[in-house]
Design brief:
Layout: E1 8-11, H1 17-28, E2 32-37, H2 41-51, E3 54-57, H3 65-76, E4 82-85, H4 100-127, E5 132-136, H5 149-169, E6 174-178, H6 191-199, H7 209-220
Helix pairs in contact: 1-7, 3-4, 4-5
This protein binds NADP nicotinamide-adenine-dinucleotide phosphate.
Length: 230
Amino acid sequence: MSRSGEKVALVTGGGRRIGAAISRRLAREGFTVALTYRASREEASSLAREIGGRAFPLDLLRPSGIPRLRAAMRREFGRLDLLVHNAAVFPRTPVGGLRAREWDGIFAVNLRGPFLLTQSLLPLLRAAPGGAVLFLGDAGAAKLWPGHLPYCLSKIALAHQAAAWKTILAPEVRVGLVEPGFALIPPGFPEGEWRRLRSRGGVPGPDTPGKVAGAVLQFVRGGGYNFSVP
Ligand SMILES: NC(=O)c1ccc[n+]([C@@H]2O[C@H](COP(=O)([O-])OP(=O)(O)OC[C@H]3O[C@@H](n4cnc5c(N)ncnc54)[C@H](OP(=O)(O)O)[C@@H]3O)[C@@H](O)[C@H]2O)c1
């Protein structure tokens, strides 16, 4: 159970990078934070200890883990007030040699995962007064970067998924979309290229992990990030 009626948030991929900034900020806001990890077990467990939360394994390439996570949320906390879809993959996929398996993997993690997880956790979210779901999109996705085309398409589709959930779940569950700009250089991304893109003004949207976490908090407090998707 959550500590004496504290609200509970679940942050996917919440153990490191932007997800860790979100988890920390939510814990400071008074949430009991459950965070999921795929490869970063140690970092996630250590962060969970630091903020008094819990870390759970979840691989969105394997949907069979979703009912296990739901059972763990029920058992450990008995409630869920906020679901933050932060986990994603951002592989470089230059046009020319993309394999079907790579495409499917990107869409499985970035698009199918958030759908199945939202669906599975709906009873808990609906039972929470003021339950909320927040999706992490990408302010630059509409640029359709040729080196990351499936990623961009998955994030554009994710924004539409968020809009659909917003309609389906209103008014009991609030839905939001935060679209970061160039917030944190992805591992392996060429540093010079990153600096060049940022110095050209980047793309609109929170452009540090702290600002992304601040945007999450703004949504949690009831403001902003109620959005429209064309
Ligand atoms: N970085 C930016 O500047 C930027 C810009 C625009 C949008 N965004 C969006 O903001 C969010 C956070 O960005 P980020 O750069 O911090 O993301 P990231 O480091 O690329 O990935 C976030 C987490 O996703 C988890 N993950 C990866 N594959 C997974 C899988 N198969 N199943 C479950 N979890 C998986 C990873 O957990 P493990 O480490 O445990 O494997 C990782 O820590 C993402 O949705 C991203 O698309 C970021």
